[in-house]
Amino acid sequence: MHLYREFPPHPALAGHVACLWTSHAVPSGAPVRHRVLPDNCIDILWQDRAPLGLVAGMMSRPHRVEVAAPVLTVAVRFLPGAARAFFDVPLDVLQDGHPGLSELWPRDEAEALAAALWERSLSLEQRLAVIEDALLRRLRFDDAERAGRLVRTAVGLIERAGGVLKVEALASTLGVSRQHLALHFRERVGLNAKTFAMVCRFRRASAALRVASGAIDWAGLAGECGYYDQSHLIHEFQQFAGETPEAFARPQSSRPG
User: Fold this and answer.
1) Within 13 Å of residue 27, how many CA atoms lie on the same side as its CB?
2) Are residues 26 and 128 in the same domain?
3) Residue 158 and residue 28: Cα distance in Å, rounded?
4) Given 102, 141, 142, 211, which is the most exposed site by the fewest CB atoms within 10 A?
């Protein structure tokens, strides 16, 4: 059994947090396995089996997770480009990594939060409220800085374009050099702008495949999602999903074990 739920954030966090979420995995015999795909977000996860918390950095490839014993997870997912307000390190150092929260926040702060979450019996909603209180204390409104505004604007432009936007054109639109944009984007988002745009395209295409039925017009899908051709689509699916689009679209029940 694997029960996953999402919750809206506190209004004061809504500009930075996509959602809070919980997961309760209870293997029945065989381990619970699932694949996590790049989504242009950074998460912090607290588990009853890893109470101090882990940070899931921006992903440039799929990650496979296997749970062999029951585990309860409570977590926060930040909006793309918004996590920098809660960390004092350039976010690109977290790419494809899962460092402990105590390595990124003061250890006494991480330990106090873990104690508040796990040392007494709480409902899921109470645990999420503990996390929100901690985030509100950490929140720094760095968007007032020019670099923060620049990056948040760049993220918005890439997302609205569905990832079909060249970095040179983006820098020109923002009135900065490509190098200036690249530096601040990596530090404040956690991926370079090109990879961020590629993930946007992949997410659009993968969402289309999840609801597709019948024969799929692969060339048409590639064009609609901003790929040069079907080969380009296949290449990026292999990078971000670890398989071809055809395999991705196959029903779970028909996939090889």
Assistant:
1) 13
2) yes
3) 42
4) 211
Note down the domain range covering 94: 2-138
Residues 80 and 150 reside in one and the same domain: no
Q: Tell me how far apart the alpha carbons of residues 52 and 45 are, in angstroms, rounded to a whole number.
A: 9
On whether both 125 and 222 belong to a single domain, the answer is: no
Residues 61, 242 contacting (CB under 8 angstroms): yes
Q: State pLDDT tens for residues 166-178.
A: 999 999 999 999 9
pLDDT tops 90 at residue 18? yes
Residue 204 phi, psi dihedral angles, 5° rounding: -65, -45
Q: Do the beta carbons of residue 92 and residue 186 sit within 8 Å? A: yes
| pTM confidence score | 0.91
φ, ψ of residue 149 in degrees (nearest 5): -65, -40
Last residue of a domain, one of 106, 138, 170: 138
